[in-house]
Amino acid sequence: MAPHLRTISREEHLAFVASRPAASHMQVPSWGEVKPDWRAESIGWFDRDGGGRERIVGAGLVLYRPIPRVKRYLAYLPEGPVIDWHTADLGQWLDPMLAHLKGQGAFSVRMGPPVIARRWDARTVKDAIADPASGRLRDVPPDEEEPSAAEVVERLRALGWRRGGEESEDGFSAGQPRYVFQVPFAGLSLEEIRGNLNQQWRRNIKKAEKAGVKVVEGDYEDLPAFYELYRETAERDRFIPRPLAYFQRMWTVLRAEDPDRMRLYLAQHDGETLSAATMLTVGNHVWYSYGASTGRKREVQPSNAIQWRMMSDAHERGAAVYDLRGITDTLDEANHLVGLLRFKVGTGGRAAEYIGEWDHPINKVLHKAFTLYMARR
C-alpha cells in the first residue's frame, strides 16, 4: 500500500527523527527557524500497520522561498526528505510530495537525497593531490562505489527530476555540498581513531598539549568571540561571512529543540582565543559545522586541538560518523581550498560523493525565470 502524505506537527516530526539512527541537521523542525526568510513546513508519509493503525514512515522539512512580486515559492528540502530512497517504486514517495507542494504554491521543488554514490579513502585522496595528472576528485577511481545510488539516479530521471545546483569550479554548488569528508567512528575505539590520524595530525595534537592549549565548551555569550575569528577566517579564505545574528539564532533555536543539538568549542592559549568551532548532532551523526581561527600563534596548533576535542566528545556520546562537511572537488595545489582538503584528509577518514541536489519544475516558465534571477545574483 502506497504511503499517503500530510502536514505534520513539530512533535510528530521530532518523534520520527528520534526513531531513526540519524538524519540531517537540516531535516529537523528547528532548522526552519534558523532560516527566517523561508516559510517552513514539516510533512510526513504514513501507512498502516497490521492492526490498521496509522504510522509515520517518512518525514521532511520543506523550506518555501518566495520569488519577488509573485505569490509562488521554491520548495526546498535540504539533505532530505527522510524516506526509503532505495525502494523500487520511488514515485509512491515523491509523487504525493510534488502534489502537496504544488498545492502549497510551489512553482519548483529542489531536494537533496542523502544518498552516497562513491567514497575515496584518505590515502587515495592524498595520493591524488600529489599527482599533477589528477585534476578533480570526480575523475579519481573510487575505493568504494554504491551500485544502488546509480539506481536511485535512474529512477529520479524517469520521474522527471533533473540534477540541479550548478557547481562552481571548486566543486561547490549553490545548495549543499556534493563532496564531503567523513570519519567513520562505528565499532572503533578512541585509540583506534587517533591511530588513523596521519603523523602530522598526531604531532600537532601533542604540540598543542605541550604548549598548554586548552579547549573549552562555550555558551551563547561566547558567540561574539567565535564571530570575530570567523570574520577573520572569511577574509583570509575569501568567502562572504554570515552575520552574528545568524549564529545567535542558530544557537537559540537548535538548543531549545535539544540541548545537545549544537555545541561551541573554543581553543585558548594564555587567555587568548585562537580557534573556535561549532558542532551539530542528530542521532549518531555529528557535524563539524563552522570553524574559525586567527593567523596568530599557529605554531601552537589550536585547530588540531579543537578538532581532536570535538572528535573525542563525539565518540564519547556514541557518534557513528564525524562529518567534516564540504570539500573542494579540485585537486589543483594552486587552489586555496586544497589546504583545507589536506587538513581534513589528515583525519584518516573518507571523502564521499552524494548524488547531488535535484530539481522538479512544476511551472517551467517560473522555474526558468527564477534560475536566471539567481544566476544574476
Automatic annotation (TrEMBL):
InterPro entries: Acyl_CoA_acyltransferase (IPR016181), FEMABX (IPR003447), PG_Glycine_Bridge_Synth (IPR050644)
Keywords: Acyltransferase, Cell shape, Cell wall biogenesis/degradation, Peptidoglycan synthesis, Transferase
Entry keyword Transferase: yes
Similarity annotation: Belongs to the FemABX family.
Protein name per UniProt: Lipid II:glycine glycyltransferase FemX
Segment forming the signal sequence: none
UniProt keyword tRNA processing, yes or no: no
Gene3D superfamilies, per the entry: 3.40.630.30
Native source species: Streptomyces pulveraceus
Lineage: Bacteria, Bacillati, Actinomycetota, Actinomycetes, Kitasatosporales
Ranges that cross the membrane: none
